[in-house]
Amino acid sequence: MKKNIVVLADALRHDYINEFDTPFLNGLKGNSFYIEKIIPSLGFCERAEILTGKKGNKTGLFTAIEFNKKKSDYKNTIPLFFLNILYKLFDFFLKINRSYFLFRVKKKIIRVGLSLFYPNAKMSPYNIPPAMLNSLSLTEDYKDHSLPNAFSEESLVDICLKRNINLNFDAFTALGKKTKLINDEMRIKYVIEHVQKENNDDLYFLYIGVLDEKGHYFGPDSIDFKEALKNFDTDMKSLFSDLKNKLDCNILIVGDHGMSNVIETLDFQSIINGILKKNMIQKEDIQIFCDSTMGRLRTKNKDVCKRLKDELKNNQTLNENGYFLSKEDLEKLNIPHRPESYGDIIWIANNGVMINPDYFHGFFPPKGMHGYLPNQDNTYGTLLLYGSEIRNIKSEFAELTEVNSIIKTEMLGL
Known about the structure:
alpha/beta; 17 strands; 414 residues; 15 helices
């Protein structure tokens, strides 16, 4: 079997491949299996979609972190109590002085404190209030992707093991993964060296994170990001040159989602706290999780849930800047209806709107963000598959889940 490399280029938006910013990749479009726009599902579990070929209503996966006490890495609540006091103290001063240095100090101190009491914790604390950590768990990354039965649905790993096809995930990514390959340069070098060696690995997974990182930091339409895009194109040219000139192999590059400019922010938590106070609902009766583009509320009982929903229907700020998902929306969007895991009430921000502060960036929103409803051009990824025996096909649209079958049929011949 030929060597096969799947390159997951995080946040490679479909329009990034053009003659000005990425001339090398743009030149491959006419002689490859090319899908202009890859449509992800709503949520943050794109790798699970690729590996299983199934949407969240089948895998049970939606967001990267779920409400789940049983699976939490942070069982002992005593250290969390004291660290939460420290967390709130830092936030008090951060509201007065939006110092990014102070924010980094806060994250560092909380992280170090948690590492002392929870040395084996896989899930990062990010900017989540420590008091919440004992009720949260990873979802798609709870189990190692490279292992069989990692998901509730059959994955590429399960299929390849049955067919004696060897996989290599060393240069791939996962939340909480411990690896010596800490950047794109090291991961690319690793794959090049290992593919060229005599070994039994047939399918490699390579993660490239620069476009996601720089897209968040600079914004997807900035001059600085354009420079990062050109460097990415150069890296891909080197990857192809080093592999194709010495070895006949198949290389697939997939962008799992796009990136939007952040144009507006809102304080989701303050809005919810104001509603709780107005309706005399205790904070202990709900849990709030602030994803960057999604506010999720898990309520203690049906009465609290109904009262909150009735009040939220009339909140002008939230309704102008996003909307609440109904049961019908969940079904239409193939999102699992699991309120115990993802919340009884889910608010989705409009494209370009972001929650601030959130549980990842704190009071410092990035200039670019993803995780919006996949119904606009700037939310779409792309796909390009190149190889000497790969069919020359161009399509306008495909869903991210279809990448699974493309790997199986076009690359592996299954």
